[in-house]
Design brief:
There is one protein chain. By secondary structure, this protein is an alpha+beta fold. It has two domains: 146 residues, Jelly Rolls (Sandwich), CATH 2.60.120; 54 residues, Orthogonal Bundle (Arc Repressor Mutant, subunit A), CATH 1.10.10.60. Helix 3 packs across helix 6. The mean pLDDT is 86.
């Protein structure tokens, strides 16, 4: 669980700033630099470009500055509970500038968390924790794509083709693991990359493809609904009916008859 203790968005320091915290903080600090600045790394101040993220672990000295004009940044202080080696598992480096060519999706997520931070409502803490977790998973995928710029177009083409085949029901994979193996990716990397590119999951697109194919069969054949469920990859007709209604708002029978109980 990620416990967010403070957050700022698009905050401006007029005339610059010079942060010096020799003992750091007893919590993590994420910074998004909206201005060029300098960070003390290995005993020397080094430039960091705008649109860069930087993660300070707990207890690490924090020295960063901008002395030649106004300074803008986002930040988030947080702690990790029950998350051993969290950033190592996500392959997100600590104490290293992470510059992304398109940080806009992450900026939007940061603004969303900033707005949620000030709402006092039931479940707000858990919601913010979930959103912070999603943020770091998105950062992980974005950073991996940035590092693998040479292979990025390959993945984009492969995954675009995969998505088209899933949604058209021309391909019904056994599992995400079988897809990952064919693409020479880990399952976690595949799922994170797919979600980052298309804002949905492989499983959700598989369900959409199955339901869309079921709609075609319901309109154009006399097959019983149970047979259509089997054709579309469902072992349980009741499970098929539940997913069909969740996506279409109708049962298979209502869809086939053209009767919409909602009066539409």
């Amino acid at each position: 669980m990620i416990r967010v203790s403070d957050i700022g968005y698009n905050f401006i320091h007029f005339g610059g700033l010079d942060i010096r915290r020799p003992r750091g903080e007893d919590r993590y600090l994420l910074i998004f630099f909206r201005s060029d600045a300098e960070i003390l790394i290995d005993g020397a101040y080094r430039p960091v470009e705008r649109a860069s993220f930087f993660l300070y672990p707990k207890g690490t000295p924090q020295f960063y500055r901008k002395t030649d004009g106004d300074y803008l940044n986002d930040w988030m202080y947080f702690d990790l509970e029950g998350e051993d080696n969290y950033f190592q598992k996500l392959n997100i480096p600590l104490l290293t500038p992470i510059r992304l060519r398109n940080p806009a999706p992450l900026n939007t997520m940061m603004l969303d968390m900033f707005n949620d931070y000030f709402f006092d409502r039931a479940g707000a803490f858990e919601l913010l924790s979930d959103k912070a977790n999603s943020f770091f998973h998105r950062l992980s995928v974005s950073y991996a794509l940035e590092l693998g710029a040479g292979r990025r177009n390959i993945y984009l083409n492969e995954l675009n083709d995969l998505r088209n085949r899933l949604q058209s029901f021309s391909f019904l994979p056994r599992s995400s693991a079988s897809i990952a193996k064919a693409l020479h990716m880990s399952v976690s990397s595949l799922e994170h990359t797919y979600k980052a590119l298309f804002q949905t999951t492989i499983a959700q697109d598989m369900i959409r493809g199955r339901v869309q194919n079921a709609c075609i069969l319901l309109r154009n054949t006399d097959y019983p609904a149970a047979d259509i469920a089997a054709i579309c990859g469902y072992e349980n007709p009741e499970h098929f009916s539940r997913q069909f209604k969740r996506l279409t708002g109708l049962t298979p029978g209502q869809y086939r008859s053209g009767v919409d109980p909602r009066g539409r």
